[in-house]
Amino acid sequence: MAKVLIIEDDLAVAQMVVDWLTKEHHIAEAVHTGPDGMDRLKFYEYDLAILDWQLPGLSGVEICKAYRHAGGKIPILMLTGQSTLDHKEEGLDAGVDDYLTKPFEPRELAARVRALLRRPSEVVKPLIAGNSLSLDYRDYGLVRNGHKVKLLPKEFAIVEFLLRHPGHYFSPEQLLNHVWETDSDSTLDALRTCIKRLRQRIDIEGQPSLIQTARGYGYKIEIESQEK
To answer: What are the CA-CA distances from residue 169 to residues 122, 126, 214 (Å)?
Structure first.
């Protein structure tokens, strides 16, 4: 599960991409102008961006150049109506990771997204901690000590995100930023309620909580402590 930004001015294409990626269990959100896309990349965190080449106000190539110049490292997939070598070379020189020529099949887009998400090391860390803890992507399931619990999508997203960064604390604000849609009206109280519900469902009596909390630091999953 990844948080994906789509910057596409064709509303029908943007909605199709959002719907397909949501079906693939990603958090997908779309904006429709270059400046809006640049602002999202500047102020919010994503795992991958999908940019159209031609955008109002700021082109996809200009966005990519500015984002890379500022140190942005997430994978970028460019959507374009052109397939010439010069066109692709310009995009690759700007920092684009992959191309998809319009019109395209949603299945191909989803496959390219999966391939790009496998590249960064922080995305491909195994989500299996020994034999006692694993995630089942088929139905949002968490398996702990052989016992499987089916989670709600947001519950699954929280556990998955923390597992991708074992031992690292994340503040409630950071979790909201990573796991909820940017335009979501969810609150810190909603996050805390979700964490409380998660603990009730997945914790094992007599054992430390899977999701640990430290005042002033936030939440983490410490895999090593679960494997002793």
So the answer is: 15, 19, 8
Q: Which residues pair with 5 in a beta bridge?
A: 29, 49
Quote the Cα angle for 46-52-57, to 5°: 95
The string of pLDDT tens digits covering residues 13-64 is: 999 999 999 988 899 999 999 999 999 999 888 999 999 999 999 999 999 9
What pTM, to 2 d.p., does this model score?
Answer: 0.67
Residue 77, SS3 per DSSP: strand
Residues 156 and 145: their CA atoms lie apart, in Å, by 17
For 148-177, give one letter per residue: b (16+ CB within 10 A) or e: eeebeebbbbbbbbbbbebeebbebeebbb
* 102, 79 contact by CB (below 8 A): yes
SS3 string, 98-122, reads EEEECCCCHHHHHHHHHHHHCCCHH
